[in-house]
Amino acid sequence: MTEQTTSPRLRGTVADILAAETVQAAWNSCADGLERLGFINLLYGATRVPTWGIIGDGQDALILYRGPQAYADVYLGEELYLNSPTYQWAEHHEGFVSWADAVTQNGAIPTPEQLKIVQLNIEHDCLAGFVGSLNHIVPGMRGVIGLSPGRKMMQPQADALWAEVGKDVEVLCQLLHLRVASLPQTPQRRPLTSRQREALSWCAQGKTMQDVATIMNLSIATVEKHLRLAREALDAQTTAHAVQKATSLNLLVGAI
Asked: What is the pTM of this model?
């Protein structure tokens, strides 16, 4: 993306996202920019270790949200998103589409969970919106983002808004996904301690348990404890699996 191809109204937001040093900072800059374009309810999810679906295990996924907390408590807390036709559309497609088109393409009879989503959206004035599949942006990293203008705006009015700002919205969402891919991510599990990150980093470099103990000036038993806790935090069966997960989430950057 160059200065010449960036929309003038996006340049400040683009610069802020690129300068962000944390995932939360990148998200805040992107969400602020999307709000200025007319979208106030936002939900982004990404993962490098999907076991099923577009996000997989929510404990391994990065999920970022802006909107009413009461909405998130139900939609995320009860994992209704797993049953959403927009989520299902994003799993099998690329690009962006309106909620209405995603539902039409899904073509299935609404389930009780989907009817609950409809009611939840009505209660929070989210009557229209768009979903974006970001799976093609970063190799090995899946992502999805949902956006709604809220304010009881109906889909025809939302479509008119999209015709005006949709390209800019896509640029910000794709840039966010790219920036997130380069930053350390903290999934929903408890974060790794600095000692756990360091021990995993040395293991990633092929060091033996004795080597790691010597380098870290710890006993082998203490190193084993750090690695065990790291495996538990990452829900990994082996240390090699923990290294793979931590590496894919950029959690080992700067650990040693």
From this structure: 0.76
